[in-house]
Design a protein that fits this description.
The complex is a heterodimer of chains A (about 325) and B (about 325). Chain A has one domain: P-loop containing nucleotide triphosphate hydrolases (Rossmann fold, 3-Layer(aba) Sandwich). Chain A contains 11 helices and 12 strands. Chain A has helices spanning about 45-55, 80-90, 100, 110-120, 130-140, 145-150, 160-170, 190-205, 215-225, 240-245, 250-260, and strands spanning about 5-15, 20-30, 35-40, 60-70, 75, 90-95, 175-180, 210-215, 225-230, 235-240, 305-310, 315. In chain A, strands 6-7-8-3-9-10-12-11 form an 8-stranded mixed sheet, sandwiched between helices. In chain A, strands 2-1-4-5 form a 4-stranded antiparallel sheet, with helices on one face. Chain B has about 325 residues and is an alpha/beta fold. Chain B has a domain at about 5-90 and about 235-325: P-loop containing nucleotide triphosphate hydrolases (Rossmann fold, 3-Layer(aba) Sandwich), CATH 3.40.50.300. Chain B has helices at about 5-10, 65-75, 95-105, 125-135, 140-150, 170-180, 200-215, 225-235, 250-255, 260-270, 310-315; strands at about 15-30, 35-50, 55-60, 80-85, 90, 105-110, 185-190, 220-225, 235-240, 245-250, 320, 325. In chain B, the strands form 2 sheets. An 8-stranded mixed sheet of chain B has the order 6-7-8-3-9-10-12-11, sandwiched between helices. Chain B has a 4-stranded antiparallel sheet with strand order 2-1-4-5. In chain B, α7 (about 200-215) links the parallel β7 (about 185-190) and β8 (about 220-225). In chain B, α4 packs across α5 (about 140-150). The two termini of chain B are about 20 Å apart. The chains are: A alpha/beta (about 325), B alpha/beta (about 325). The interface of A and B includes residues 255 and 261 of A.
């Protein structure tokens, strides 16, 4: 498979009054062309920071201190702000958890989508071409009656409609990659199903790759093809969804999958002992070692590199050295 | 109609909680005099029973009234109409003192342990407060019981002298559970107790709740929207839509033989964390209508693939499908 985006050794930190939070501790993974990738992990594992770092949306007191984000041969971390704006306008789109907070409350939604088109295509916002594209994408995201929809303000929309507008804004420029950060966590389950189906359908039609950030293993299992499991600022495991659920390798992935009840689970649920570490003072070596039942001496000393143990299945664990 | 079942069970001592035609309407006030012109019918004519030592799960989307039912059963909210019978006493007809006495037997654990614990009280005071209100135990005795209860939920004695902010989400939910069980209640409403927690923490809280149910012979009303959790925890399941129970039955009936189209839609919509799990592929239609102005007839007809004219006019009542399995749908036999 052809690579679209390669994240290598990405380190992002946040300067806080408590000290430096080492949020990303050398994250590496690839997004392929036409990929539908899930990035999953518990609160604070760095999944959102990863997506914001790729988009270079980390603001003070945060800082990307190392690594590279190579997108179609160019390292995004080395682009000028102006060039990066162009990438955000046309090539990588992002949608967020709270669609109503992401939309501008004082502008009509039609204008907001048109703005995305006109910036990306360098066309005047009032032009007929832009308007046609807006109507077309509104129909594509399942909003009937685009003529009246463009006149609405965000407060007139339900959460599900607002997220459809966000998807329209994200996909109207036919980007190469769509990053969706918990796109359905604020929505009801029936609306969640509609939105995820919609994203999946549209990106496969357009040949766009998608990267879905979620904490919900159910969303990964039902919608994604590949998954990146993150723990405390590191990638623990990467692989095909079915492989990861059937034969997880990393002790954290194993624990995580066994901790979630599925239909038919009987008896006691397995748990992972201990708690998620504080990233101001993370454990040395593998950040999971204090909670791991299989930890070796080396685990507290050296951070395990991520390596491919079988084609397409990567794990960062000394047990597989 | 489910009334038949209710009166049949009324003489049955296995029943701990029985609600009968329960209604809870919230006024929507507007105008200069803030008169109630419209009502949100959060719970509209709901009847069911909860047997001793069982876990009844209440599932549905946000705004369907599941939380309101839980709070109305405990009389944290006054019902608009209908009755709640707890332990053979009708809560709607008793005095305040009697209600206070009965409150010892029923407790609640809320969804968000970051907002349900007083930030400026020590854990010993949070967990000991029910004893202070309901008993005349000495402070030494209260401390002893707090310690014992904390150990019961997997916390330690030293945690007594800390504030809630010093704990993780999972530990806070343990504190909330300790506060709920310290009076040795018979019945606990668990209102999405793990929705705010990470999955690895959720597992521990679910294990704890199952252990306590066993040890203390508890009865749970488990409010949630996570079907895998329902399958793991519940004996029976009630599915709600816009203030109504549309289907109620044993867990296996609801999961393996769902009779209501909404139950099927809900089960198809909720993602199951198992890529090998085969399920029906139904894409839900439309959005949940406004509960101020719910659709006439069957409230689900606007989103239902099987709706016919009758569904738009006539509200379906719960009908018996099978032993303990009831559904409110005109067409359940055909579909």
């Amino acid at each position: 498979m052809e690579k679209l985006l390669s994240v290598r050794n990405l380190r992002t930190i946040f300067h806080t009054y408590r000290g430096v939070v080492k949020a990303l501790n050398g994250v590496s993974f690839d997004v392929y062309k036409k990929d539908f990738l899930g990035v999953v992990g518990e609160t604070g594992c760095g999944k959102s920071v990863t997506s914001l770092s790729i988009m270079r949306l980390i603001e003070d007191p945060g800082e990307i201190v190392d690594g590279s984000v190579v997108f179609e041969g160019r390292d995004l971390l080395k682009l000028s702000e102006e060039e990066m704006q162009k990438v955000r306008a046309k090539e990588i789109s992002m949608i967020f958890q709270e669609p109503k907070m992401a939309l501008n409350p004082v502008l009509k939604v039609g204008y907001q989508i048109a703005e995305a088109v006109s910036t990306a295509e360098d066309l005047p916002i009032k032009s007929k071409e832009v308007q046609e594209k807006v109507y077309e994408i509104l129909k594509a995201v399942g909003l009937p009656d685009p003529e009246s929809m463009v006149e609405k303000y965000p407060h007139e929309l339900s959460g599900g409609m607002a997220q459809r507008i966000m998807i329209a804004m994200g996909l109207v420029t036919k980007p190469k990659l769509l990053i969706a950060d918990e796109p359905t966590s604020a929505l009801d389950v029936t609306i969640q199903a509609q939105i995820l189906h919609l994203i999946k359908e549209l990106v496969s039609e357009m040949g766009t790759s998608a990267m879905i950030i979620t904490h919900n293993l159910g969303v990964v299992a039902e919608y994604c093809e590949r998954v990146v499991i993150m723990y405390a600022g590191n990638v623990a495991e990467i692989g095909n969804v079915k492989t990861i659920f059937k034969e997880p390798l990393h002790p954290y992935t194993k624990g995580l999958i066994k901790a979630v009840p599925v239909i038919g689970t009987k008896g006691k649920l397995q748990t992972i002992r201990g708690i998620v570490p504080d990233l101001v003072n993370p454990p040395s070596g593998c950040r999971f070692h204090p909670r791991c039942d299989h930890a070796l001496d080396i685990c507290s000393k050296e951070l395990p590199p991520i390596k491919e143990v079988e084609p397409g299945h990567f794990v960062a664990c000394h047990l597989y050295d | 109609m489910i009334d038949g079942e209710v009166s049949e069970l009324a003489v049955n001592n296995d029943v701990l909680v029985k609600i009968n035609s329960l209604k809870k309407y919230f006024p929507v006030r507007s105008g200069i005099f803030l008169r109630a012109k419209k009502y949100v019918r959060a719970v509209d004519n709901v009847s069911f029973t909860i047997k001793k030592n069982e876990t009844l799960a209440l599932v549905g989307e946000s705004g369907c009234g599941k939380t309101t039912i839980g709070r109305t059963i405990l009389h944290l909210l006054e019902p608009t109409d209908g009755e709640v019978i707890f332990d053979n006493k009708n809560l709607t007809k008793i005095s305040k003192d009697e209600l206070k006495e009965l409150r010892k037997g029923m407790q609640i654990v809320f969804q968000n342990p970051y907002t349900s614990l007083h930030p400026r009280k020590l854990v010993k005071d949070i967990v000991g407060e029910p004893l202070k209100i309901h008993t005349d135990f000495s402070s030494v005795e209260i401390l002893r019981r707090v310690k014992e209860t904390l150990e019961n939920v997997g916390l330690r004695e030293e945690h007594m002298y800390r504030y809630p902010h010093e704990f993780s989400g999972g530990q806070r939910q343990r504190i909330a559970v300790a506060r709920a069980i310290i009076l040795r209640p018979k019945f606990i409403v668990l209102d999405e107790p793990t929705s705010a927690l990470d999955v690895s923490v959720q597992a521990r809280i679910l294990n704890l709740l199952n252990k306590l149910k066993e040890e203390l012979s508890l009865t749970y009303l488990f409010i949630t929207h996570d079907l895998a959790v329902v399958d793991y925890m519940a004996d029976r399941v009630a599915v709600m839509y816009l203030g109504k129970v549309v289907e109620i039955g044993k867990k296996d009936d609801i999961f393996k033989r769902p009779a209501h189209p909404y139950t099927r839609v809900l089960e198809a919509a909720i993602p199951i964390p198992d890529p090998f799990f085969k399920k029906e592929r139904i894409l839900p239609k439309g959005e949940v209508p406004n509960p101020v102005n719910p659709p006439k007839g069957c409230r689900f007809h606007t989103r239902c693939d099987y709706a016919v004219d009758k569904c738009k006019e006539l509200e379906p009542q719960l009908e018996k499908v099978d032993d303990e399995h009831y559904v409110a749908c005109h067409r359940w036999k055909e579909i």
